[in-house]
């Protein structure tokens, strides 16, 4: 694989490559565009794991994404230096600068927006959207091609991220956020269309783009030299940068979800401390760690220290695994996530994973909210999808009223059934937990009155 061609300054919505006179690099501009986007801001009210926790501060999708971007930036710097050191004789002058000074911005930008396509209420929101179409209570299946229907019954936040970042909504500019192809290729964990989904392959466990964005994705993949595995259905190998974004996400959610559970009292202090300490001691000096912990008296501060040491240790070990297997990563042929490799070597994460599955992700309060969120999202789809697919001359007054609630940016009346439905899904999947809940209450008559 030619390292000089893995990155590109080309942007969605632009016919040609043009480098701005802006003092920021093209990839720093990506980061800033994401930060200032409304889709990113909405992440502050989207569930990470623990929704609506009251007075105890825990992470939402926005704070999680900022932390993933921080870890991603570190990984980009570390791996960029590895690539420069090992391959500098094969690199152009421009590429030497890219890997030393800009890869970190690409990984940070991709990390920042890796969850931007996730709907309200986390994975239960995804499940609600997919289940609505699987159940097909209104018999709409004949209006869609096989490929289009697969997109809907397998709705996926990763594919939706590509749509959120690249699509042209009604009344808005072409190319979405106008991000570089480098950043877009770095978030494509599953670079295939929905009909190619196959859980036996790491890069096909889910899918990475809807039919509506298929040609955009093809252009991104070809420009950044992703290895094509098939054209019908369209499948690529992962881009080499994707593994770093995935690792940054995995590092953060494993450690931070555990810390949040401690703050909420779901995991007892001593158990949390010992579990994190055992992880850190896989990579660090026992005397140094014990001495520092003995000098800290605040319980939360002890956990915060171990959280920081855990993230640092896993980041450095991730860099080492990438460096040791760099040819496989560059060719997209690696078959496991970086964190899986580390855990197989050390067992460092076993305690956290086992506790999290049993006591965090299946905690009663979490499950109750997931059930409620599922119902909210399902009912919102039921309110908007049938009317938007009903011919104007056949609509009831209630159908017209429902469509009036659909903002113009999401109303694709007159277009194909697939695009009309995607408009509704765009609207509902982009909602925050609070907005979706409030709208559900109002249209169901649970809460009546003017909202200013």
Description:
It contains 20 helices and two strands. It has helices spanning 26-35, 38-41, 61-87, 93-112, 122-135, 146-153, 157-166, 181-185, 214-223, 242-263, 269-280, 286-294, 299-324, 326-330, 338-346, 350-360, 364-389, 397-404, 417-429, 433-443; strands at 228-231, 234-236. It is globular, with a radius of gyration of 23 Å. Strands 1-2 form a two-stranded antiparallel sheet. Helix 3 runs antiparallel to helix 10 (242-263), helix 13 (299-324) packs across helix 15 (338-346) and helix 17 packs across helix 18 (397-404). It has 452 residues and is an all-alpha fold.
State the main characteristics:
single chain, 58% helix, two-stranded antiparallel sheet, 452 residues, 2 strands
State the helical fraction.
55-70%
Report mean pLDDT, rounded to a whole number: 92
Structural class: mainly alpha
Order of helices and strands: HHHHHHHHHEEHHHHHHHHHHH
Low-confidence stretches: none
Cα Rg: 23 Å
Short description:
The protein is mainly α and 452 residues long.
Spell out the blueprint of helices and strands:
Layout: H1 26-35, H2 38-41, H3 61-87, H4 93-112, H5 122-135, H6 146-153, H7 157-166, H8 181-185, H9 214-223, E1 228-231, E2 234-236, H10 242-263, H11 269-280, H12 286-294, H13 299-324, H14 326-330, H15 338-346, H16 350-360, H17 364-389, H18 397-404, H19 417-429, H20 433-443
Keywords: Hydrolase
InterPro entries: dGTP_triP_hydro_central_sf (IPR023293), dGTP_triphosphohydrolase_C (IPR027432), dGTPase (IPR006261), dGTPase-like (IPR050135), HD/PDEase_dom (IPR003607), PHydrolase_assoc_dom (IPR026875)
Organism: Terrimonas rubra
């Amino acid at each position: 694989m030619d390292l000089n061609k893995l990155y590109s300054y080309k942007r969605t919505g632009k016919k040609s490559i043009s480098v701005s006179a802006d003092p920021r690099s093209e990839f720093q501009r990506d980061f800033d565009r994401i930060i200032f986007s409304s889709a990113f801001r909405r992440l502050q009210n989207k569930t990470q794991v623990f929704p609506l926790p009251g007075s105890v501060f825990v992470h939402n999708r926005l704070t999680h994404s900022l932390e993933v971007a921080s870890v991603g930036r570190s990984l980009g710097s570390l791996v960029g230096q590895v690539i420069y050191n090992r391959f500098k004789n094969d690199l152009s002058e421009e590429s030497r600068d890219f890997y030393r000074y800009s890869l970190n911005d690409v990984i940070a930008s991709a990390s920042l927006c890796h969850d931007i396509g996730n709907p309200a209420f986390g994975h239960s929101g995804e499940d609600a959207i997919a289940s609505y179409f699987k159940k097909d209570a209104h018999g709409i299946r004949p209006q869609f091609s096989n490929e289009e229907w697969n997109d809907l019954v397998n709705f996926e936040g990763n594919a939706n991220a590509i749509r959120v970042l690249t699509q042209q909504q009604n009344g808005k500019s072409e190319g979405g956020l106008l991000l570089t192809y480098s950043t877009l290729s770095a978030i494509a964990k599953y670079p295939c269309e929905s009909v190619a989904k196959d859980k036996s392959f790491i890069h096909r466990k889910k899918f990475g783009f809807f039919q509506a964005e298929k040609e955009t994705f093809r252009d991104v993949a070809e420009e950044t030299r992703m290895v094509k595995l098939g054209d019908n259905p369209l499948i690529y190998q992962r881009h080499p940068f994707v593994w770093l974004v995935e690792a940054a996400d995995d590092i953060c959610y494993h450690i931070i979800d555990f810390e949040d559970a401690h703050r909420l009292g779901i995991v007892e202090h001593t158990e949390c401390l010992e579990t994190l300490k055992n992880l850190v001691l896989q990579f660090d000096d026992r005397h140094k760690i014990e001495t520092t912990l003995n000098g800290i008296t605040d319980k939360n501060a002890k956990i915060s220290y171990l959280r920081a040491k855990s993230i640092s240790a896993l980041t450095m070990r991730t860099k080492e695994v990438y460096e040791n297997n760099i040819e496989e990563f560059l060719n997209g042929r690696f078959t496991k996530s970086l964190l899986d490799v580390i855990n197989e070597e050390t067992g460092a994460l076993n305690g956290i994973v086992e506790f999290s599955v049993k006591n965090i992700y299946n905690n009663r309060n979490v499950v109750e909210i997931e059930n409620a969120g599922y119902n909210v999202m399902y009912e919102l789809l039921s309110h908007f999808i049938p009317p938007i697919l009903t011919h104007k001359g056949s609509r009831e007054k209630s159908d017209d009223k429902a469509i009036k609630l659909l903002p113009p940016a999401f109303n694709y009346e007159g277009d194909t059934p697939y695009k009309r439905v995607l408009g509704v899904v765009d609207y509902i999947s982009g909602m925050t937990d609070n907005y979706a809940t409030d709208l559900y209450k109002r249209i169901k008559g649970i809460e009546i009155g003017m909202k200013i």
